Structure prediction request, 332 residues.
Amino acid sequence: MNTPGPEARVAIRAVSRGAPAARYIHPMNIRDVDLNLLVMLDALLRERSVTRAAEAMNITQPAMSNALKRLRKLLGDPILVRTAGGMQPTARAEQLQRPVRNALAQMEAAIAPNRAFDPATAERLFTILITDYAASVLMPHVVAVLETEAPGIALNILSASGDAIGQIERGEADVLVNQFGQLPANFHHQRLWRDRLACLIRSDHPALTAAGGELTLEAFLAQRHILITQTGIGLSRLDEVLADRGLAREISVLTRHYQLPRQLVAESHMIATLPARIARYQARHLGLAVLDPPVELPEFQVGIAWGALDHHDPAHRWLRERIVRIARETLD
Prediction:
């Protein structure tokens, strides 16, 4: 009778615990992987073109095509697919892009440990989780600075979801820009800027005309409202303040998007209450008015948070410190 090998024993133990054995049948051994393929994969995902990736790596196009063929076989995935808009990465490839880029960056840093981080020559992809409000007011400033100071730094800007903390803990994202309540103990954060809520309303709204341009509490409560909520449920701080007074407003539209309300306000009598910075920007383009809410509301803070995994990484530290400085110089 033959004795099961180590891999078979792992599979047997997995089945005995109720876990699926299939995932243990064909384990990938890193010793069987040509690590040069990871460098090729990084180039392909950055350039999204076999020709441009080959030029970036200073190799021939047939050589890069062969590398892509080997990667597809290794990963069991097309990696890049041809679309009307050019070559696009698959979902699997997008999942791999940041881990591969960061793994290569860490390997480079390990080989040359005494070399200081140089933003002018560094090449790296950072994933930023952020609300569209914060992205609208912050990211144009950040991108403008990176374009001159760190042209090799690329940003993957994603909408912050309810699982943002988990994404950072799993290494799927680098930083989160948002308003924070309680963060996990192993997280770090810094304040970026302060803001307050303001009301976005049509300049020719009948309620303003009747009150000489003033938004009274009575008129405010008589209108229909747009509620912006990141979760899609629940009430805002404004509604909590009104509820403390025994009052409530009529909410007709709930949305997670900060850009949509301006169009709704411009074409209706509804009122949107949103951060003043973005309200002022939107009002300029559509002839809308920005007014203080008819109740006193506290300021709120927007911050940047990151996990312990990246806290000591030189490139990560440079980027977040640069974001903090940009925000405080331009927004705070």
Summary: Confidence is low (pLDDT under 50) at residues 1-26.
